[in-house]
């Protein structure tokens, strides 16, 4: 296990929940790549077991995945350049910190779940605020629009995640980066990754 490996499956689930827009990449009969927001199914250990979303029916990748359902799904979390000017350590080299997750999956289309997939995604991105938007607000427009999508569940075959967030830095260098870096999201991810190490 690498110093940049997630300590627990829940860290990968958190990345997916915070950064739901992923690339769905397939390669047969030709390469296709579609950015889609996805939500995760989790097991009792909070490991991601499947990713749920929907395609537009006119997307050529739908027919490609029906013929060959294997795909790669790529998520990217916080990321950014770390300049040597943040660190007083002599000869410190610049680097790029990031959190990513790569899932090899098998895609199963489920048109009968179109409504459930949409409602689940919207509930996730709208959050817990009391006035959150729901599909019911679309009224009569919802049903004809929903006929132009197709839901899917991508069963996870393998997951490879990398959280390169300063875990190999000397404590004093890490503290300087956290104090001086302008990207609050990246520094928050670095703090989380370095807790209790």
From TrEMBL:
Signal peptide: none annotated. InterPro entries: Split_barrel_FMN-bd, TR_PAI2-type. This is FMN-binding negative transcriptional regulator. It comes from Novosphingobium pentaromativorans.
């Amino acid at each position: 296990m690498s110093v940049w490996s997630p300590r627990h499956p829940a860290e990968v689930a958190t990345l997916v929940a915070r950064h739901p827009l992923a690339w769905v990449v397939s390669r047969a009969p030709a390469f296709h790549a579609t950015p889609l927001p996805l939500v995760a199914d989790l097991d009792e250990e909070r490991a991601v077991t499947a990713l749920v979303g929907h395609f537009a029916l006119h997307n050529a990748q739908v027919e490609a995945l029906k013929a060959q359902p294997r795909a790669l799904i790529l998520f990217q979390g916080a990321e950014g350049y770390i300049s040597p000017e943040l660190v007083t350590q002599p000869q410190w080299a610049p680097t790029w910190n990031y959190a990513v997750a790569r899932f090899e999956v098998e895609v199963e289309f489920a048109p009968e779940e179109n409504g459930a997939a949409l409602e689940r995604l919207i509930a996730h991105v709208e959050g817990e605020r009391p006035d959150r938007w729901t599909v019911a607000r679309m009224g009569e427009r919802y049903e004809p629009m929903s006929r132009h999508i197709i839901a899917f569940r991508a069963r996870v075959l393998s997951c490879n995640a990398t959280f390169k967030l300063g875990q190999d830095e000397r404590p004093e260098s890490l503290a300087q980066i956290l104090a001086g870096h302008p990207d609050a999201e990246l520094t928050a991810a670095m703090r989380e990754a370095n807790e209790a190490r």
